[in-house]
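ok so i was messing around last nite and threw this chain in just to see what happens. nothing serious, just curious
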Amino acid sequence: MRRYSPFLMILCLAIGVLIGTFYTNYRIAGRLSIINMGSNKINYLLQMIDNGYVDTVSTANLVEEAIPLILSQLDPHSAYIPASDAQDANDELRGSFSGIGVSFKIIKDTIVVMSVIKGGPAEKVGLMSGDRIVHIDSMLYVGQDVVTDTGAIHRLKGPKDSHVRLGVKRIGEKKELSFNIVRGDIPVQSIDCSYIIPDTKTGYLHIKNFGETTYFEMLTSMAAFNANGMKSLIIDLRGNRGGYMETAIKMANEFLPEDQLIVYTAGRKMEREDFMSNGHGSFTSLPLVVLIDEMSASASEIFAGAMQDNDRAMVIGRRSFGKGLVQQPMEFRDGSQVRLTVARYYTPAGRCIQKPYAAGHGEEYENELLQRYERGEFYSQDSIRQDGPEYKTLGGRTVYGGGGIMPDIFVPEDTTNITSYFREAVFRGLTTQFAFHYCDTRRPILRLCNDVDDVLKVVKRDNVMSRFATYAAEHGLQHRPLMMQRSQTLFEHHIYGAIIYDILDGDAYQQYRNRDDITIKRALEELCSHD
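result:
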């Protein structure tokens, strides 16, 4: 690769002009002005390399290498997506893809089905969690040199109505089972948990991203909540890295009265554009709390910022990521994409909450979260730097720009009873490995469970924590009885939660984890205080 470095540096300059020419096919608040005089140089340079370079070189590969280098000099969020990855990158936000309808992990060089999507093609033919896929279309697909996550995804996905034949090993069955599956549209739910919190009239929505279907998923959940007497709502955006700005705007509109600013965008080639509420929202007076953390970014911050700056909702949790840059996807003819930052977005109070960055220093930018952790920001509000410019909310409260959204109520990360024994068990993946091992050995019994409490009865009767200690010791983690006892609750949350996810689904898992979630407890206290 080093021998190509001089050519890559030249190409980085030349291809910048090529990308500029490409942008003329798109409207970005009026067409970009491009000086085309350099385009002939690109062709000439590539011809020189092709005709005269000492070794055989793929100019197409040089271009693929050069484009990411160019974009890395702009900002941390402008990116190039090769054609081979473009569809996978978009599937989650599009709300569906074509496949067989399973989630899986690679365990001991074998595809293991972790869950089967209800109503999907795999469920219809009888595929079950715990099944090992060993043949795909009559070809053996096991072994370290064969099985990869990417390869498995591409083999199991495929065009709608196409067929795939799977050979499956199932615990309790002596012979390999064969399934002929017709691929179909698999919905991707962006709201992965939706329920009325027991003993309350508070609805709870956990939104993992802002995709094409998120707004309609929210309306469906809200209709069900209303039918069950909902009086208040918690929207959980923790861990939500964002998605489509348009979706966040639609959702914010449902909670704001008419003519309130939701967000505005502006860039060098984009005039300011304001996005206002239209007064048609159905939940403008519903008591609302929004939960955020350090992984809440982009569209999550648009929504949370709109609620905070308009004094519409209480924001609770920890400081958000701080991504205030707007990307526009643009396609090349081969299906590859550039996601180019074209503007910044601003909250209603005027805050650009993009955290500082230096062009070409992407690794440092990503490590900023680690720096927050090291200075104690996750555990103490006093450790948070509020050195950005001050702004005022609609009601006159002071908020800050310059690096994420600071919640109205700070809730530190719960580190109670964490021990080195617990940290090592989690870091080495022993808790999740054991949970799957346990489910495998008890799957016939666990499949009879209908809800979280049914699963908990079985695992407690089986003395699962004692089994885990033995399993961990057999896998090289020395048993520490006192540490095990101190971290008992944490171990239970991790292991029981993983078992519930395996046997039931993500919604049940989230409901179980929420039972002792201190941030949700604080949100409920806040909602009760305003009844």
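not much to say yet. The radius of gyration is 26 Å.
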